[in-house]
Amino acid sequence: MKRILVVDSDEQVASILSIKLKQSGFEATAAGNSADALKIIPEFRPDIIVSEMILPKMSGIDFMKRVKMNPETMRVPFVFLSSSRDVENKILALDMGAAAVLAKPLFINDLLEKLKEILGEYELKNSSVSEEKTPEGDISDISVLNILSILLENKSSGEVEFSASSERRGVIFCDCGNVVRAETDDGENKDGMEELYKILSWSDGTFSVNYGEVSVERNIFIPQKKIIEKSVEWFREYSSVLRSLPPVDTVIYLDFAKFVENLNKLPDDIDALIRNIGESGAKISDIIESCGGDRLRTVNYLEQLFELSVVSAENVNTFYKSESPKWLVSCGKSAEIEENKPEEKPETAENTEKPAETEPVETTVEESAGEPKISAWDELARERARSRKSGRIALFILLLAIAAAIIIFIYYRGLI
Q1: CA distance linking residue 163 with residue 205, whole number of Å
Q2: Closest C-alpha to 308, from 246, 237, 236, 256
Q3: CATH code for the domain in which residue 52 is found
Q4: Are residues 231 and 253 in the same domain?
Q5: What is the dihedral of CA 82, 86, 92, 93, to 10 degrees?
Q6: Which structural domain, as residue segments, surrounds residue 197?
Q7: Considering its fold, how many domains does the chain have in total?
Q8: Which residues of the chain have pLDDT under 70?
Q9: Which candidate, 140, 189, 132, places its Cα nearest to that of 163?
Q10: What local confidence, expressed as pLDDT, does residue 385 receive?
């Protein structure tokens, strides 16, 4: 006898469907919401689930995600009942593996025929396929956090492979629902939480779950519930900052004049981010990817640069237009302008009759080769390093002066 689970928040509808299904030779039971249904499934072990799409506590689609991610129930077919005219949710349900989406109100005989048809198809499919199906899908449909939560609920072991739309790849290893390792193809894979945060930031891409025993070197050692808490906190902060920025496919440009003006307000380790923007601009998504490391720190730096108007979506082209300091004039186009600028002299009879002849200066290959061109970026980095060194020296002298004053004070107080 085939077992059917009916999930509907309307108790009258659920009761009528259960009675009709029993009269038609099925074993049926009902639940009023998806949370209760998840508790019934392990013991009842339904052959098919008939569920309303709009449910309290958890939507019908989220309910199906959890069932499909469990290796013991991932083959159970879903039939959704919906009174909504929202076509997108119906298409999403079918794309995620629902066997059918039927509109309410419906005739019970039509439902019974559809259930028999689906059960026959699934029996034929399961008997002809010996391999276990691998749960897979899009990250945009089910987030990385949801996947980790489902693996914890099901106490599953295996590895989840992720492929981002940016062609980055990552793997999360779970043992009895606990994340024990996270790694990416462009990371050092030493700090597991840092690698996990990187995967959490991927909003587009695909995933696939391969269930089985795992034997890997751990790089995450905190309990699973703590991992979920830290991941949720990190993702909320990351998403919040990202929402304050323009869309990630926006090309942003550097206002060099503003950059020099706000140099002392910026953190010391922001140089790599500035270089990734470059003179020709770059997409926000490419900047985040190329900086690597802590992505939350990267988007925080970007937010700070936007607040100071150092970067914007408009190319103001001030890279060499600003009044450059002396150390910057010695390199780049500013130097060329200063060197090629003729010296202004008062017009007299002596200097207007005949220009002075200058002897050409011979430069050897060795001399020219020994003078490498220094970019504005390199000179800027050197200047910042010099200023930091000068600041440390000044601080050291100040501390010595304070210490000397304290010693003198103690000495004279002792004499008194």
Answers
A1: 5
A2: 256
A3: 3.40.50.2300
A4: no
A5: 0
A6: 137-240
A7: 3
A8: 125-133, 292-293, 317-391, 413-416
A9: 140
A10: 65
Instruction: Judge if pTM exceeds 0.85.
Output: no
Tokens standing for 82? 């919906």
89 shares its domain with 111: yes
* Final residue before a domain boundary, out of 83, 115, 131: 131
Question: Which pairing describes strands 205-211 and 136-138: parallel, antiparallel, or unpaired?
Answer: antiparallel
Work out whether strand 251-254 and strand 205-211 pair parallel, antiparallel, or are unpaired: unpaired
Query: Which two three-digit tokens encode residue 415?
Result: 């004499």
**Same domain assignment for residues 8 and 101:** yes
Q: How far apart are CA 21 and CA 16, in angstroms?
A: 9
Type of residue found at 358:
T
Let me know if residue 268 belongs to a domain.
yes
From the CB of residue 261, how many other CB atoms can be counted at a distance below 10 Å?
Answer: 14
Nearest-angstrom CA–CA distance, 287 and 85:
41
Query: What is the spatial distance between Cα 196 and Cα 221, in angstroms, rounded to a whole number?
Result: 13
296 and 230 in a single domain? The answer is no
In whole angstroms, how large is the CA radius of gyration of the chain?
34
